[in-house]
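Our working data are protein records whose layout never changes between entries. The record below serves as our worked example for the rest of this section:
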Amino acid sequence: MIDYSADNATNKILRAHAQQAEAADRPAPESLAALRGEGVLALRTPRESGGAWADVSGVARCLTVLGRACPSTAWIAGTCATSKNLVAMSFPAAPVRDFFADPDALSCGSGLPAGRGERVADGVRVSGRWPNVSGCEDAAWAVLAVLVESAFSLAVIPVADLTVERTWHMAGMRGTGSHTLVAADLLVPAERVAAVEPFPLKDLLLYSITTLGPVVGAARGALDAIGEMFASDRKPFMSDYSRMGESPAARQWLAEATHLVSRAERTMFAVAREAETNGLSAADRPRLHVDLADAGRDCRAAVELMLDLHGASGFDTSNPLQRYWRDVAVGSRHPHLNPYLAVESFGAALVSHL
């Protein structure tokens, strides 16, 4: 059973190895072992295959807790949940039995149709290059979007059959190891390639929340760091205050940052609850997309306030605050959380109903 407390045993391991993950541009083996041991990698493994098949709120809660310790590792857990959901929803049970044989296996994937498939007598020959595949160096399986005779399809491929090119060198979310996967005329069994229809809104919201959860968690982690500063004997430099908490302005900044993070979290869980209802339609997507994008922006604004409170020392490479800042800055700009496109879609939807 997953422990959702902020300072659980898994988070202690993730926090202890966060810098190692950054330095290696991939998750620490100890952190992945901790995720596996606690059942995190089986969040969206179907129950009949030994997994939890957690609802959207459960996924959001788990990723937020993990992101508080190491946003990059939480991100990989989210990618794993997404790829397993894709397989469970897009393939009959029998052809992908091997995929779910180990319910706690790490899987990765890309919804970008960056490959092409050609049907042949004994399967589908797939070639392509998929960038930004989080956790691909450590995953057992990859779920990759391909165009097969112009049809959007998913291919389930063992990562051992693919080539990993280490192309992920980012300022934030460095530990996700979101490198490039390459297939060169790879024969994939026909039963592991399936044409898919447009994803239902509930699934789209799940995929967005797997990116937002680690970002909200990172903002919570930044608040933890600021809380430790307020509890210490640190004082505002060039002031007569003896402690940070004596400054009315510092207390206001802390309150505003906390409010923004709490609002982002509330927004995320409100969307998650809507995703679990049966009354949603495609017309709800623009509104919910704006909500999710706003939650990401709230996290960014909150961390900026925290850095103002901490001052230049918050950017010391040994200070976890700067890592949370970079992770929030990169993670909140994922296409699922794109604010200007969200507003554009929402505006178009509003005008269409006038």
